[in-house]
């Protein structure tokens, strides 16, 4: 995702702003200055951009809190010029859940627009439909409210475009998934996304509306990468770790000096190890590659392996999918798992590197 700034954590979810959002703020302010807005207008303009920003964050919380309802955690919310992303820990496997989570964001914008409309109705009895959006100037609170109303309607409609990464793409995928498999649905949704993207680019170039063409290019790119992502995820689900485990792994013993894992990790592709108790000939913990780096940094090459051993040990069956193993490593903060039916019959090991290697080969 590139560099982003941490804004704060609300409801247990960190909100981050991608650096390009700052760039967009500057471009918008530049346009404002170019159009000779006075100080009050510029102030309202700036407030408007901040409100837009808040609406996008609330939209993402719509996704994140609905996901929480289905026991799916959100790693963070990242705001960028093309909108926000609530990065979920996993994709909900049930298409109905995906549908509800995807639609919850745009519905937040409907609610905000509705609130604006109600306030405007009671304050001015203004008929929103008679308003010409091109004539809106943001130099008083009522005009401001009208603009917020329009912004939310646009956010709602834009997000319902049935192409990734818009919510509409996910809504479409989840609806298709109820009948077809996920990979097939993603492929169809991705193709529709590409067609819409090409239309955007074509129309954008034809009417010299370059922002539209750029958005089209972006949609095209995202539609392609979402399809790749789901294909990869499917392969991770369908492949068991039996295919990637290392059967001839090096055993470390509690009394070994740290120089042993240091030397092996420099010379070979083994960077994470199982640590054995020599008396019972069974693993009792793991050696994380970070601990090896730590030992090198502290010049503790002669320290016993036991000093750097983590007691977190996990045994996984060889029938486990790579996907599930990756989840286990991630959620339990492990770098390696022992593979086998019991600690006495370990058939191999799988570590983060072997999973990453598999993913790189599959891409
Ligand atoms: Zn959304």
Helix-strand blueprint:
Layout: E1 4-10, E2 13-18, H1 19-34, H2 39-69, E3 74-80, E4 83-88, H3 95-124, H4 141-159, H5 167-177, H6 182-206, H7 210-238, E5 251-253, H8 259-267, E6 273-277, E7 282-287, H9 289-297, E8 315-316, H10 322-332, E9 336-340, E10 346-351, H11 352-362
The structure holds zinc ion (ZN).
Strand arrangement within the widest β-sheet reads 1-2-3-4
Structural class: alpha/beta
Number of helices: 11
Q: What does the radius of gyration come to? A: 26 Å
- DSSP E strands, number: 10
Bound molecules: zinc ion
The ordered string of helix (H) and strand (E) elements is: EEHHEEHHHHHEHEEHEHEEH
Poorly predicted spans: none
- Assign a percent range to the helix content: 55-70%
What would the average pLDDT be, to the nearest integer?
84
The gross shape turns out to be: elongated
Q: In what range is the share of β-strand residues?
A: 5-15%
Give a short account of the largest sheet.
4 strands, mixed
List the quaternary state of the chains: single chain
